[in-house]
Amino acid sequence: MTIKNFTYSAALLALFAFAGTASAQTATVPRLEMTATVVSAMRLDISKHASGVNVDGSAGAFSLSFGSVNSLGVSPAADVAAAVTEGAGAAGFTMYTTPIVLTPVFSGMTGPASVALTIGSGANDAIAFEGDSAATVALAAARVVVPSSLSDVPNTRYVGFKISKLETVGVKTAVLVYTLTVTP
After folding, report:
1. Count of domains in the chain?
2. Burial of residue 82 (number of CB atoms within 10 Å: 0-12, 13-18, 19+)
3. Is the overall model pTM greater than 0.85, yes or no?
4. 36 domain-assigned
5. Exposure of 160 in the CB half-sphere (CA atoms within 13 A)
6. pLDDT value of residue 88
7. Closest by alpha carbon to 53, among 77, 29, 35?
8. Which conformational region is residue 60 in: left (phi greater than 0), alpha (psi within -120 to 50 degrees), or beta?
9. How confident is the model over 143-180, as pLDDT tens digits?
10. Which residues of the chain have pLDDT under 50?
């Protein structure tokens, strides 16, 4: 019986020895090294002002509509201001304006940003106006309209059409091109 007990004892001892060896093993831990190159980026968002008409679009292609307009300032669309100047012929006109928001957004640059305006390729650019306020809009021409702005700071601008009594009936399209420049 002692040999039998010894056999059982040896088997039990071997089982514990192998179990201890198995639990002492360490698994290989997979590692993932990641890299990324941070680069500078910028964009100019054009959006609806709280008291302006809707601005549609994104990623550089934006649009808005003044609705139906006339030289007498009769029934302007909601959120469109109409300032009538009485006069005969071309001297009689209505200036239709609405505010928009220009927001420079940039990263990887210290700033500030500036925004310049140039006239685009619309068929009616000669009747397009732009300015700091509805009262100070001027013929849309090449100039800096936002001289200095930090990133994510909204800048209110006013855009509009000057519709004279001599303006022909039909759809009028003007293109304003805003160019963002950021100090690196």
Report:
1. 1
2. buried
3. no
4. no
5. 32
6. 92
7. 77
8. left
9. 999 999 999 999 999 999 999 999 999 999 999 999 99
10. none
- Residue 154: asked if its preceding bond is cis (omega within 30°), the reply is no
In-domain check, residue 58 = yes
8 A C-beta contact, residue 80 and residue 97: yes
Per-residue pLDDT at 49: 98
11 lies in a domain?
no
- In the numeric block, the tokens 């700033």 are attached to 111
Which CATH number does the domain housing residue 138 bear? Answer: 2.60.40
The CA distance from 116 to 145, in Å, is 5
Q: Quick one: pLDDT at residue 20?
A: 52
Q: In the structure encoding, which two tokens stand for residue 177, read together?
A: 């091109």
Whether 31 is covered by a domain: the verdict is no
